[in-house]
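User: Could you walk me through two proteins back to back? I'd like the raw sequence and the C-alpha cells for each, with a short line separating them so I can tell where one ends and the next begins.

Assistant: Of course. Protein one, sequence then structure:
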Amino acid sequence: MAFGPGGDRPTPGPEPEPAESLPFPDSLCHRCAAPPQYIRTERSTFLRCPILKRYPPQPVRACEAFVEREAEA
C-alpha cells in the first residue's frame, strides 16, 4: 500500500482486474463510464466517484450521474 506525502493518507491503487476481486461487485460504479478510483487502506476499500467528487455509500444501486460504459470489443 502506498501512502501520499506525509505518510498519513493512502493513495489510489490500480483498478482490480478480476471481477470476483472487485469490492461491492454489484455496485453500479464498476459499470460506469467514469470508473471510480479505488482507495485502499489496511482494513477498508473506498470507491471515489470522479464525477460527483465524493465517496458514495456502497453498493451504489441508483445514481443520477451514472452512464453505462460502452462494451469492450
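----
Protein two, same layout:
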Amino acid sequence: MRVACPDCGETVSVPEGATSGDLVECPNCAGHALRLRWEGGRWTATLAHRVSCPSCDDVLTLPDDAKAGDTISCCGGRYRLTFEYGAFAAEEP
C-alpha cells in the first residue's frame, strides 16, 4: 500500500501493520511526518506538524488540531506555539 505526500506528491509506502494515526516520514520533505488515516477503504495522509523544544531540541509532533497560541510542555517548561510561513515554532511565553 502507498499514499501520496500532501506536500510534494511523492508516494510513500505504508508499513505493514500500520494503523490509523501512525506517522511515516516523507523521503523528499526534510523533517515532514505524515499522519496516516484509513478512510473509505484506502489510506490518506496529512502533514503532522512538528516543533523543536527551545530548551532541549527534542522534536515534538503536534496534534492535528494545534493552532497558534496553544501551549505545549517539554522538559518541565511550557511554550507557546506560533505559526508563520507554513510552520509552527515553540517560544517562551
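Residues 50-91 form one domain.

Let me know if you want the two compared in more detail.
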